[in-house]
């Protein structure tokens, strides 16, 4: 049984109708070219929505899609979804068609001339903790249990290395290592990139105590952050899922009395802002955060918030 036959039930009928080569090249696009799992899901959802819409419009094969179809779909989405979501959908459709053109499945890309909505972001929306809030959160965690040691180490890792929660959750014990006289961490970031960073002295303390007092330091092939065994209070050998880590973070923040709403990248933005406030450069912050462009890093910078607040307080009534 060939690849298209295996994947056919999962592919939209619009693509399957174009023949085995179209199915194979589409599968190749999602499985071979889109390496990030979250991006793959988002792009698959966008292409699936577009395929379903085309079917309602009487388009039965991807080879029959015209620029007008793509344009009408995007215009409809603009009335229903946010601009970033629509732009992402258009990017997914355009990239898939580009791949099909290169693979000689279709002659031209019908999405090439379609424009998406205008969306310019100069300031990010990620909630940021003040240094005092972040310090209070870390200090509020009782490190007298395996769960407390784990949670403090995980949050500290994200604050001091600007790590994404996905990269933190994917770490093994072997990703914490000594180099010279400092403890280092190795993060497996987006795009298959490994980033090695020296630990801040606070993070070094958190990780050393976590590994030593939980007994997992010698299990180098096991996950670094683990679930708590049911009824035991001890770490299991199962990796801590992102959803569980996310729930833990919100639970810890609530217990610490932090009123700032914590988002997916709050600790990333908190660390970057604190770094820049203390004389760090945007270029170095981008390197630590594994950003391809400093423009992305700027979206996490909230240093200007202090200036804005100072100016607002001048309104003395």
TrEMBL record:
GO biological process, one term: chromosome segregation
InterPro entries according to UniProt: CB, DNA_brk_join_enz, Integrase-like_cat_sf, Integrase_catalytic, Integrase_recombinase_N, Integrase_SAM-like_N, Tyrosine_recombinase_XerCD
Keywords, ordered alphabetically: Chromosome partition, DNA integration, DNA recombination, DNA-binding
GO molecular function, one term: DNA binding
Chain ranges of the Tyr recombinase domain: 124-314
Domain Core-binding (CB): 21-101
Residues of the signal peptide: none
Protein name as catalogued: Site-specific recombinase XerD
Organism: Phreatobacter oligotrophus
Organism placement in taxonomy: Bacteria, Pseudomonadati, Pseudomonadota, Alphaproteobacteria, Hyphomicrobiales
